[in-house]
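Q: Structure tokens for this one, please.
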Amino acid sequence: MAGNRMAVVSSDGILYQYQSLASDPVLDQTTVLSEVLSLDELHSLKFSASGQELLLIQRRSTVPVTGIDVETGKVLFRIDARTETPTDCYCAIMSSDSSMLALGLGNDVILVDQVAGDRNVLSGHRSTVTALCFLSHGATLISASSDRTIRIWDLKTQTTTHVMTGHSDPIDRIALTDDGKCLLSISTRAEVCLWNVASGHVLTILQSSIEGSTNQNIWSYGFVDLRPNRPLRARLIIDWPALRTNLKTKHFTGGRK
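A: Here is the predicted structure, written as tokens:
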């Protein structure tokens, strides 16, 4: 999903793009993919910042990421896992100028320079990398993992500047504020943490009090009220199993330290 756009790829190779408005999503464009792609292990889709490219992320494949031109449906690039057997890939993301691409491949982060063609491996996580995001300037990458940690990477030195701990379960999703100062992370059991990116310190932990809740019950998540000098508020829209007919909105705040 990019802004108010979202995409769906059908099994017969058609890309459907929707405008996701306040009401139900509205079909905006359909594009036939130029090549037949194996979608059996398709895990997720990810728009580039410009919205011109779409990443098809396949969970267990020797070619885990394929870049598609959203207008023409043509394949722009493929990222080879360079492994003899398929390795878990749950996430991939492009930098704001599309010059860099990062993907989680097993326990490692693979960093691909789309211009120079260079490829580097960032190692440190002890379990599968599950989520990634670039800071807007493109010099910093954030990775989350099933090992319950978040790592902040300096891409110039390709080293970890912070290892953030606080989750009691594997981390599944992350999201940055527009200014890149705060990070929201969600675990597989719907535990939510709000972090200060500069310091690596946790600001707030929100733990579900309803037994059996998981992150699959979180329908949407993000930040609201991001005006300068105002407290940061993150909003989750949650449908707990015990309250399936009753959507609840959770709010919590954290300072902009």
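A few notes: The chain is about 0% helix and 50% strand. The chain has two domains: 5-182, 183-257.
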